[in-house]
Amino acid sequence: MSDSAGLPARAAALSLLSGVLRQKRPLDALLDTLKPLPPRDAAFARALASSALRHFGELDAIIRKFVEKPLPPHKTGPAMEILLLGAAELLILKNAAHAAVDGANRLAAADKKAVHFKPLINAVLRRMTREGEAVRETLDAPRLNTPDWLWARWVAQYGEEQARAIAMAHTREAPLDINLKNSAAVAPEGRDLLPLVRRLTAEGRVEDMPGFADGGWWVQDIAATLPVLMLGDVAGKKVIDLCAAPGGKTMQLAARGAEVTAVELDATRLERVKENLARTKLNATLVASDARDFTERAPLVLIDAPCTATGTIRRHPDLPWIKQGGDVTARGSLAYEILESARDMVEPGGLLVFAVCSLEREEGEEQIEVFLETHPEFVRAPLSAEELSGHSEWISEKGDLRTLPFHLAAEGGMDGFYAARLRRNS
């Protein structure tokens, strides 16, 4: 990539980073802006912005070592973001210094406010090429890359050692896992982690990989596949899948022979479920409804409850910087309302699985403790290691599912998930 050819990509990365840090917009919601770029430039822009977010705390600390006074955003425009991208390119992506520095200078020159700070940006990044690595080695990167509101929670919930392991796992980009429709499905090369769950070694656009167009598989992190396994043999059984979009669990259930009713409030997201089912040639009944208003009954009910999704930070490095502690409370309240509503959907003797892709106890473990205290007709149905292919480390002391980002570390980690299986006795 020549320096000039890289400018549109760097400008796109700057727009992504500013959208997250200034406007608190989710990175995924901004990625459509990359569509006009050639695939190579779009990939570079995404990698650059993601690296800056994944290592935001340590990069910010390094910059502040070299900049005496903080840059006031209203006067300097995107100068700080340009410095962050330059630092990420130099220290994380390890691109050629001349390309990274020149790219940052060009970004500054193109902005009416940042242009006045071009000499500063140039000087700081040139100094960083000489001294940045040495400064970086002195930093407590896991702590710096985790905002205070999350660090305090994780230390309280898991202890400092595990909190650090979680934070370290978040500095590494998540690998790509797929769920095969069946054992005969054509699929890309990779390592099989569980039956029908493969971690890819192949690279390239998902849509161009073997078996995708034919519907032989879909993208789904290994942790996200586990709540369906908690329902046991679903063949021929009716299952209600609440908060179903984007449809990974719906497809899992349908592929295993369940009669699935997928309930989703968001019409756009429900359309995505429909498209995924069409591609994979699987069947489910789709219902556009608030889960709290749904009134059908079934022997098996699965809730993939709304949450802050802090278990998916490896895939969404913007999350720590656009959310805050209050979001945990708000999401937890909504999830509990759905859990309460699901109680009446479960037939006597049936199972209810409640799952969240969150590391926060308020969104997972505490929801279930309160529910069981107030609904004696439900009891825990603890997991066994055999149900999870021998992975006892994924099972909590009370028999619930609790995966952490540093689990499967040698294979590249996994999402953080919590799920509880409850049986209705009456």
Could you walk me through the main structural features you see in this protein, from its secondary elements to its overall organization?
The chain is α/β, with parallel strands linked by helices. It folds into 2 domains: 7-139, N-utilizing Substance Protein B Homolog, Chain A, CATH 1.10.940.10; 177-424, Vaccinia Virus protein VP39 (Rossmann fold), CATH 3.40.50. Helices cover 43% and strands 15% of the residues. The chain contains 17 helices and 12 strands. The strands form 2 sheets. Strands 5, 6, 7, 8, 9, 10, 11 and 12 form an 8-stranded mixed β-sheet that branches. A 4-stranded antiparallel β-sheet has the order 2-3-1-4, with no helix packed on it. Strand 2 (190-194) and strand 3 (197-200) form a beta hairpin. Helix 3 (39-54) packs across helix 6. The termini are far apart. The mean pLDDT is 96.
The CATH architecture term of the largest domain is 3-Layer(aba) Sandwich
- Summed up, the domain count is 2
Q: Indicate the radius of gyration in whole angstroms.
A: 23 Å
Assembly state of the chains shown = single chain
Distance between the termini: 65 Å
Number of helical segments with 4 or more residues: 17
The CATH superfamily of the largest domain is Vaccinia Virus protein VP39
CATH topology assignment of the largest domain: Rossmann fold
CATH class descriptor name of the largest domain: Alpha Beta
Characterize the largest beta sheet: strand count, sense, and whether it forms a barrel: 8 strands, mixed
Shape: globular
Strand content: 5-15%
Low-confidence stretches: none
Helix content: 40-55%
Could you tell me the number of beta strands?
Answer: 12
Q: What is the element string, with H for helices and E for strands? A: HHHHHHHHHHHEEEEHEHEHEEHHEHEEE
